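FAQ

Q: What does a record look like?
A: Structure on top, sequence underneath. For example:
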């Protein structure tokens, strides 16, 4: 092997090491900015995005609550799917004012959940005690509702209505005091 080839290979290895180290430092710097969602500073993009939502979060809302508002907006019916609006309204009505555990208990016997889904649903209580912006408790409760409905397409719209109704209850619970 010539000296030039050795130098090129060594140079490439050095470049890979430098590029890898730079990537690690960048990821570390980004991770430093990540927290538990309760930090007081809000990026301007998040503020403008929240203002453009159909249902914006209340003033002084925590980052967790802002994210829940961003992710769980009122569902819209699909004009190409007949009955989607009705399925959304039925899902909202079925889950309005309830907790995810209430929905699970009401519909679990009628649902056709598979084994993995049943294992996940069994953890609803844990998720309810520690709500996160992705609201897994609500999504699992709405899954039980969805799997208890018949049909191929419309139960998905029922899921959307149900998880939205469940998120409304969580939004009220996490809202800052008005006093």
């Amino acid at each position: 092997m010539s000296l030039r080839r050795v130098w090129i290979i060594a140079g490439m290895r050095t470049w890979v090491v430098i590029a890898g180290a730079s990537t690690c430092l960048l990821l570390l710097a980004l991770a430093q900015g990540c927290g538990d969602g309760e930090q007081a500073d809000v990026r301007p993009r998040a503020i403008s995005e929240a203002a453009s939502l159909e249902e914006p979060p209340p003033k002084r809302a925590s980052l967790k609550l802002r994210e829940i508002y961003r992710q769980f907006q009122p569902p819209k019916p699909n004009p190409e799917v007949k009955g989607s609006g009705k399925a959304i309204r039925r899902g909202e009505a079925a889950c309005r004012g309830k907790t995810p555990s209430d929905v699970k208990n009401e519909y679990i016997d009628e649902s056709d959940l598979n084994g993995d889904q049943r294992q996940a649903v069994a953890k609803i209580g844990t998720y309810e005690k520690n709500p996160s912006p992705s609201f897994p408790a609500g999504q699992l409760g709405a899954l039980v509702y969805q799997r208890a409905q018949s049909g191929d397409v419309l139960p998905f719209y029922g899921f959307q209505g149900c998880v939205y109704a469940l998120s409304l209850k969580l939004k009220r619970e996490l809202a800052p005091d008005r006093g």
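Q: Is there anything notable about this one?
A: Residues 121 and 140 are 6 Å apart (CA to CA).
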